[in-house]
Amino acid sequence: MVIDLPVYLPLLPPLAGAVILTATSSLYRRRSYGAVRWLVSLASLLASLTFLVLMVPSVPASYQLGVYGPPAGSCLRLDALSAFLCLTAVAVTSLSVAFSYRYMEHDRGKNRYYSLMLLLTAGLLGVFVSGDLFTLFVFWELMCISSYALVAFRKHEWEPLEAGFKYLVMSTVGSLVALYGISLIYGIAGTLEISGIAEALSGAGIVGYFPLAMIVTGFGVTAAIVPFHTWLPDAHPAAPSPVSAVLSGLVIKGGIYAIFRVLFTGFASYGFAVPLIILGAATMTIGNLMVFAQQDIKRFFAYSSVANMGLILMAGGAASRIAGAHPADAGLAYIAMAGAIFHILNHALGKSLLFLSSGSMIHSAGTRSIQSLEGIARRMPWSGGAMAIGLLSLAGIPPLGGFWSKLMVLAPLAALLPAGDPALAAAFAVVLANSLIAAGYYTWLAQRIAFKPAAVPESVGEPPASMVVPVVILSIMCIGVTFALPWLIPVFEAISRSLMGVR
Amino acid sequence: MAVFSGDWIGLAPAWLCWLVPFAGALIVLALGKISRKAMESIGAASVAASAALALVMATWIPGADFPIRLTAPWVELAGSSGDLPFPAIAFGILVDPVSIILANVVAAVGALIMVYSIRYMGEEPSTTRFWFLMDAFVGSMLFLVMSDNLVQMLFGWEGVGLCSYALIGYWYRDSKDPKSWLTTWVGEGNESYPPSHAGMKAFLMTRFGDVLMIAGVILLALSTGSFSFLEIAGRVGSGGSHPLLLPASVLILFGAIGKSAQLPLMEWLPDAMTGPAPVSALIHAATMVKAGVYLVARVFPIFYIAAAADPGLIRFFEIAAWVGAATAFVSATQAAVSTELKKVLAYSTVSQIGYMMLAMGVAGTMAEFYIGYAGGIFHLMSHAVFKAALFLAAGAVIHATGSRFMHHMGGLRKRMPLTFLGVLIPSLSLMGVPILFSGFWSKDMILEAVLESGNLPLLAVSLATVSITCFYTVRMVGKVFFGSPSAPAAAAVNGGGADGHHAGDPSPLMSLPVLALSAATIAMGALGVYEREWLARLLGGYIGSLVGVHGEIHLGDPAAQIMVSGASLAFIVIGAVPAYLIYVRGMRIPTWRPLRSIGSFFANRWYINRAYYALFVYPVFRLGGWIADRVEEGALRSAERSAQSSLLWIVGRLKKTHTGGLNENLIAALAGMILLVAMLLLVVVP
Amino acid sequence: MSEAFSAAALALFFIGLYCIVTRRNMIKTVLGIEIMTSAVNLNFMSYASSGGASDPLGTSIVIVSISVGAAIAALALSMVIAVYRKTGSVDVRELRRLKW
């Protein structure tokens, strides 16, 4: 049954929720109404989820905002990739918000917190459904500004302030560079609709590649691509754990999504393939290497997010390289791209799981140092076990999800080794080496958390149920990915086909 | 979309039989806190239900057209254009005579053992973990048996390995008080191991085999383009020879060697006796250790067909046969001098599985493969029955006397008559005493196959092992049930033994399964002639249709049968009579020096165990300690000491670039952008 | 005509960038952000205007961009104030406590 719902509908509940929370803020000064605030947030997110699920059959759908049609007006487009990312976003955000109820209980200004989370979600969803660069920019800024405020949320502590300011400056510079690039595209093409700019840009020659660089740089700042990544290891640990989960799990994916969407839809040839591979390789390697120096568990996860973004970027670069230089093997390009998209899902689930479960541990034990958190799984079996599942999934241990996405990226590269393409061969070597290194440190952390004698006092125990349940749900989803493979793999292949189009 | 192909509803027992124990395991977890009785009942009932389902499957054998496959797609990476040479992994169930027979063995024996466990584990404080693991084990084993492809079988393989490890180390607290040492530890002197160590040892040794097996599976899949048993067999037939097949086959054999405790990976099984008696019966006698034989039986058609095209592949079967024969001999000698009751049974298990491996190997070298193949499967069935009975009875004896050592037992025949019967009958079957016992028929079928293959050295080793088997079996029965009771046994006999142990027949819940299994071994023996023929025809016809060999099933001429029976009878007498005289009649023998040094060589397990520890275990411990001290502490405590290794040096340099200053960060970002523009211009503008 | 505006926008963009990268005072950093925002807005308008009526798309982007710039400035300045309350200075080099 195909219900014809307008594409903007999933965006409304979070926005409405934020407005309602702010308008009724005076109500929550009394303790007992705090739960209402939490429930309102959850309700709006679940409403959004419902709308999305109902809209899935009608994909692809689009919607015109305002009076002007294309090419002048703004439009929203929900295609397979957007629908998939929106569903992931709402799912992870709902679980983080559910987790926040007890985690944030000692913080002040919770009203602002929930409103900002809802605004962040609305911005994120908007980014995924925008059909033209203007709408993308609007929702992008909504998302970014909410995230700056959320990172610096605990402003009475030093770390969030420093991290928040640095994040704000770097990300704003990035957004402005991207906006400048968008203005150049506007100047060249006269329109900002993503599918419409392809022709104009291909006709512009060299000049068309400056906006490309600026867009990759600008969105790459948020996507934590080296060398624009330096804000992330400060910002993600400084934010409260549920916010870190959403940031690492979703916001940085928003950056990658914007890059992929603009590049693959807006540029007719695959010339950007090798620079993407190089950037991805640098990101992955530097991210993985910096993990080894970390003693703070949240910084550990932050650098590993950088590394995983590198993997996704490399997969996209490899896919475009295969499609561009070896058009006869286009099927392999689709598989590589499908692997990138699958890894977005795996990393979103896994990293948010890791940040939430470590949030439980930090909440109970009061420390972020890995040394002091050794063996904490013995005191907190559910959270510790879930964290172990997340670590193993991201490490790429079969049969958990991370293994399949890495396989889908590596297999086409391996199949093309005989072709002797240096870019692809280098990509294969880098991805393989980095995956092994990453597997090493994830399992090292798992061993430290679970098998060492507990360094925390006896009093540390499992946190309240509302903090354990989201974590367990995420770990079940990490395992469930394996069972859902027959349904997931065709979906990802279809998405990558539609993203890369037929050239 | 996922498409289920095949009659999933009509053939429901094929997938219900493993799903029910898994569900039972989860229910056990939930019920554990609520009611112990309910938990035990559900735990046992789920396996019983599984046995019933397996029985339903057995009724399909006469009429159905095998093989029957049920499949659902799982991972298909090839894309619509099929450009990726990655074989699709489907989720599938293979219903054929071999899997049905195995499923029945596993589930039926398992059900009886579960009933036994209710009483045996009755005194333990909290047994939730036990029941959960036992049910999960049965589920994994049946999952393994019913799998239609190698990857899925690997899932079951790992599952049984995990449950086995957890159950061997069930009493992981390794309590050192004398009472526990006598019942839960294993070994003596500096080869004495606590339960947790034994569990880890089992895990690591089988792991080693598993790693090699996974490599073999990958090679096999890459060379044939599929993971499914039937599809591989089909492709090997039409594709001609492939150089990777022989290495793949040997690597896969290593997995079987690890799991079935054959040479050179046999050392874990004797030390796995730290687990409770039901665990030893179920996992280490009747089912998990047979998984290796099952694996060889499953890949048998593949390599048999391939051997027709490429004679070099016969090596695989020859290796399997010799591994089996050598293992049978070596472990039999170790059983002959062992001082612990369960260890004798463990070595005996290793030895008998050696026979099954021998049968499979020898079958592959002959045109009339069905004698060996059916013999191997027949011996698998009959061994499961009598060995499980022996282990369960041994559990009762150890429980009654409070010690695992045979020199603490003796003369128990009068106080534990039912147990004695439950040991005597299976022992006679193990020895292969003619006509009435299933062991005779199955073992002789194997010997016949060896004779038909014309490999006289193998035959000699097999017959020698028959003697030694009889020797240790009679020795065991004599030491435990005959002779004058040792001090602890005497105390137990008079009631109030060590810690109130009271030697007497255990409760019906424990003795009935033992007697049921003993009766089964007699029943199988009585019908031995018919079983022989039936199995040979069934398996010969089925496997024959797979490998493309059709023809009359000749069960060998009577002359060969009589020769083999006669020879085995002779060797039985050679082995049994001395043991009878020494251990039952109590005859004293002069201590003859060469005999003593041979004996101590066997008792030291041919020094294989010590060699492994010296070569592998202790050096790795030392290396691990060195790494923990020098590398980990150094890296974590002071990351500035970047001289530890080149990786840390690189990380150290990298850290200096992350200064934290906002201005530097921005400059770096802009530099990156300029680099990007440069790259684009260089790459795009040729 | 629009080329002159685009060139001016480019110059302004780099001035803003220079300001952010080289200034030690956090408030000057925020000013730099605002200058860059103005540069981008100018660039948009330079392509949107054609002497007569401006292209509504470009104009609406500029309006949104201005409001976004204002929000960012407000947020950034509130962070600057919080830092000042903690350390008594607005020097960016104070923000070096988080390193590798």
TrEMBL record, chain A:
In this chain the NADH-Ubiquinone oxidoreductase (complex I) chain 5 N-terminal domain maps to: 76-114
Give the superkingdom in one word: Archaea
Q: How does it sit in the membrane?
A: Multi-pass membrane protein
**Primary location group:** membrane
Q: Which UniProt keywords apply?
A: Cell membrane, Membrane, Transmembrane, Transmembrane helix, Ubiquinone
- UniProt-recorded name of the protein: NADH-ubiquinone oxidoreductase chain N
According to the entry, every stretch annotated as the NADH:quinone oxidoreductase/Mrp antiporter transmembrane domain falls at 130-413
Q: Which InterPro entries match?
A: CPA3_Na-H_Antiporter_D (IPR050586), ND/Mrp_TM (IPR001750), Proton_antipo_N (IPR001516)
UniProt keyword RNA-binding, yes or no: no
Q: What lineage does UniProt assign to this protein's organism?
A: Archaea, Thermoproteota, Methanosuratincolia, Candidatus Methanomethylicales, Candidatus Methanomethylicaceae
Localization in the cell: Cell membrane
Per the UniProt record, the source organism is Methanosuratincola subterraneus
UniProtKB/TrEMBL annotation, chain B:
Spell out the subcellular localization from the entry: Membrane
Q: Where is the NADH:quinone oxidoreductase/Mrp antiporter transmembrane domain?
A: 147-176, 196-468
Keyword terms, alphabetized: Membrane, Transmembrane, Transmembrane helix, Ubiquinone
Domain NADH-Ubiquinone oxidoreductase (complex I) chain 5 N-terminal span(s) in chain numbering:
89-130
Residue ranges of coiled coil: none
Listed transmembrane segments: 12-31, 43-61, 89-118, 130-147, 153-172, 211-232, 244-261, 282-307, 319-341, 353-371, 377-398, 418-441, 456-474, 509-530, 562-583, 611-628, 666-685
Which Gene3D superfamilies does its entry note? 1.20.5.2700
**GO: which molecular function terms?**
NADH dehydrogenase (ubiquinone) activity; NADH dehydrogenase activity
A Pfam entry, by short name: Proton_antipo_M
Its topology with respect to the membrane?
A: Multi-pass membrane protein
Transmembrane helix among keywords: yes
Cellular component aspect of the GO annotation: membrane
What's a BP term from Gene Ontology annotated to this protein? ATP synthesis coupled electron transport
PANTHER family per UniProt: NADH-UBIQUINONE OXIDOREDUCTASE CHAIN 5
Its name, as the record gives it, is NADH-ubiquinone oxidoreductase chain L
UniProtKB/TrEMBL annotation, chain C:
Q: Which UniProt keywords apply?
A: Membrane, Transmembrane, Transmembrane helix
Residue ranges spanning the membrane: these are 61-84
The domain of life is Archaea
InterPro entries documented for this protein: CPA3_antiporter_subunitC, NADH_UbQ_OxRdtase_chain4L/K, NUOK/Mnh_C1-like
- Which locations, inside or outside the cell, does it occupy? Membrane
Keyword Transmembrane helix attached: yes
- HAMAP family for this protein: NDH1_NuoK (MF_01456)
Q: By what name is this protein known?
A: NADH-quinone oxidoreductase subunit NuoK
